[in-house]
Design goal:
heterodimer, A: 186 residues, mainly alpha, AhpD-like, 9 helices, 0% strand, globular, B: 190 residues, 10 helices
Chain lengths: 186, 190
């Protein structure tokens, strides 16, 4: 049960967003810029970074919805599972692996990122803006995950709900809600 | 030295924001609503929550600047701010704020650590649902800002006077207005 009186039938962050539209607006905008707007990192790569950080923070709602968005972009869910379990063995580029190392450190503590980590990413072709965005995606999901978990939001286990959400996120982005109606508690 | 080529002479989050104005705008809009917007928590109380979380994350720039903004809202009482950082249970703040800082400290570690008993204790001291929501989100948001500032290896000066001076300005003018100076700068130089 949520810790406060959140609207019923709205899973995860959508309940927090409904409860407080004033903070929802910049939080949606930030996710939209980071994950959906044009970037030299593909939308799939950015969703994989978000999924990886959310998985390390053990936030079910965020890793499932962003994992579904990544799978929708990739047309393949198996890579998402590989990235969560052991990204070093996943079918992703060496550049993305180097960026995931940085994201994993930011997830723990930004101070753990070293000059050598950044140098490794650069050697695989990462630009300054890609390194910046990786750090900020990892930092932002350290927020979204804590928000979703800290309010005790309802986080359904139904994979089909996340698949639908993921499709919306992949196609429309983050400015408009992906959950517009209460979801059946099934 | 920063990990990437951030604009010089802009310490902490300011250099990062000037580097990427597209993300700076929602980042500033969020902190503006949370820390300066209408709320039944005072601006001093909300800045103390931000300062406490940043202090636990050991992000020097954030806990210094938000500590000074808090002090500016609290009649210049820097000793109270230091007490909240060191041991808030002994600080001269309300029992309600102490209960909210317990929740913020748990969110700083992991949102799943917040218990119904923590929330009940805050309610017993008069905290509303909106105040509990905003406490959780302030704590979560500073876990982002702190990681952003540290993860880019930004310049975080030691000089207390610098934070005191800027803290007074942010307390007076708010985050969005003060950010215009370096976001404007970024637009002109690109």
């Amino acid at each position: 049960m949520p810790h406060i009186n959140l609207p019923e039938g709205f899973p995860g962050i959508s309940a927090g967003f409904m409860f407080r539209p004033e903070t929802a607006k910049p939080m949606r905008e930030l996710a939209h810029v980071l994950l959906h707007e044009p970037n030299s990192l593909t939308a799939a790569e950015r969703e994989l970074i978000a999924t990886y950080v959310s998985s390390r923070n053990d936030c079910h709602f965020c890793q499932s919805s962003h994992g579904a968005a990544a799978a929708c972009h990739l047309g393949d869910a198996s890579v998402v599972e590989q990235v969560k379990t052991n990204f070093l063995a996943a079918s992703v580029s060496d550049k993305l692996k180097a960026l995931l190392v940085i994201a994993g450190k930011v997830q723990q503590d930004g101070k753990l990122v070293t000059g050598a980590d950044v140098e490794t990413a650069r050697r695989q072709g990462a630009t300054d803006i890609e390194i910046h965005d990786t750090v900020l995606i990892a930092a932002a999901f350290s927020m979204y995950n804590r928000y979703v978990d800290g309010l005790g939001t309802w986080q359904p286990r139904d994979p089909e709900m996340y698949a639908q959400m993921g499709k919306h996120l992949a196609e429309e982005g983050y400015r408009a809600p992906s959950i517009k109606q209460p979801v059946g508690a099934g | 030295m920063p990990h990437i080529a951030l604009p010089p002479d802009l310490p902490g989050i300011r250099g990062a924001m000037a580097f990427r104005p597209e993300t700076a705008r929602p980042l500033n809009a969020l902190v503006e609503v949370l820390l300066t917007g209408p709320s039944t928590l005072t601006r001093g109380e909300r800045e103390l929550i931000a300062t406490y979380v940043s202090s636990r994350n050991c992000t020097h720039y954030c806990h210094s600047i938000h500590g000074m903004i808090a002090a500016a809202h609290l009649g210049g009482d820097e000793a109270l701010v230091k007490q909240v950082k060191t041991d808030f249970t002994q600080a001269a703040i309300s029992s309600k704020l102490k209960a909210l800082l317990v929740i913020a400290g748990k969110v700083q570690q992991d949102g799943k650590l917040v218990t119904a008993a923590d929330v009940e204790a805050a309610r017993a001291q008069g905290a509303t649902d909106l105040e509990i929501h905003d406490t959780v989100l302030i704590a979560a948001a500073f876990c982002m800002y702190n990681r952003y500032v540290d993860g880019l290896g930004t310049d975080q000066p030691d000089d207390e006077a610098l934070y005191r001076e800027r803290g007074r300005r942010v307390a007076r003018d708010g985050y969005v207005v003060v950010s215009e100076e370096y976001l404007g700068q970024a637009v002109h130089s690109s």
